Amino acid sequence: MGQERLHESLVTCIDRVYVGNCNFVYLIHLLLVERKSQFSDGDSVTANQPIMTSITAIPEDRDLTKDERSLVEWLLDHGTPDAIRYRAHLNKARVAAGCYCGCASIDFGIDGVVPNRGEPISILSDYEWIDTDGRLFGTFVFSRCDLLAGLEVWSQDGLAPADYLPEISQLRPIGTASDGEIG
Predict the structure, then answer these.
(1) Can you give the pLDDT at residue 19?
(2) Rounded to an integer, what distance in angstroms lies between the CA atom of residue 34 and that of residue 118?
(3) In terms of CB atoms within 10 Å, which of 18, 23, 49, 142 comes out highest?
(4) Do the beta carbons of residue 101 and residue 58 sit within 8 Å?
(5) Low pLDDT (below 70) residues in the chain
(6) Contact criterion met (CB below 8 Å) for 51 and 7
(7) CA atoms of 164 and 151, how far apart (whole Å)
(8) Which strand ranges, in their side-by-side order, compose the sheet holding 147-155?
(9) H helix runs in the chain, sequence order
(10) Please, are residues 71 and 168 in contact by the beta-carbon 8 Å criterion?
């Protein structure tokens, strides 16, 4: 199997198996971008050309919804000691992109500046919840390049897409939700 077909097969497999778990897909994206020269059969992919960027974000330009803003505010207020300083960014934030998989994850632009997706992130607050069907989800807010950069919502167990935001009352620090806490 040629390198290009191997890459296409891997992407197809990821899309079919991990629908609703975009963190895993983004991790694979980063690995493939780092290893992109291994998937190149000459001129089809250059050393500086990302090969999966089209599947990681759908451009948007809109205000945060009331629920998005409330969740991010709460996460920043209940996050790491550094998280609170990003609260001021929220007043200047707009949704710059949504996740291609249909989950509720969003990326922010602050005063029109969207941090480069290739830069490392810092997790400012990390929580989880269990829905009424017993499925485990997670959410975190993160910074990138010293800007509030996004809200991630994901399925931890892969049983359902994370296509909605949790109620704040459902949230527990990551790693502490138990089967008895169905929300």
Answers:
(1) 37
(2) 10
(3) 142
(4) no
(5) 1-56, 179-183
(6) yes
(7) 12
(8) 58-62, 93-98, 106-110, 147-155, 136-144, 121-130, 172-173
(9) 3-17, 22-34, 66-77, 87-90
(10) yes
Q: Where are the beta strands (DSSP E) in 27-135?
A: 58-62, 93-98, 106-110, 121-130
CA 20 to CA 183: how far, in whole Å? 19
Contact 125, 82 (CB under 8 A): no
Angle between helices 3-17 and 22-34 (to 10 degrees): 160
Q: What angle do CA 136, 151, 168 make, to 5 degrees?
A: 55
The reported pLDDT for the residue numbered 15 is: 39
Give, in order, the Cα–Cα distances in Å from 61 to each of 85, 98, 108, 109, 143: 24, 10, 9, 9, 19
**What are the structure tokens assigned to 153, written together?**
């919502």
| Max CA pair span of the chain | 55
Structural tokens at position 161: 């897409």
pLDDT reported for residue 117: 82
Tokens 């994206």 found at: 29
30: helix, strand or coil: helix
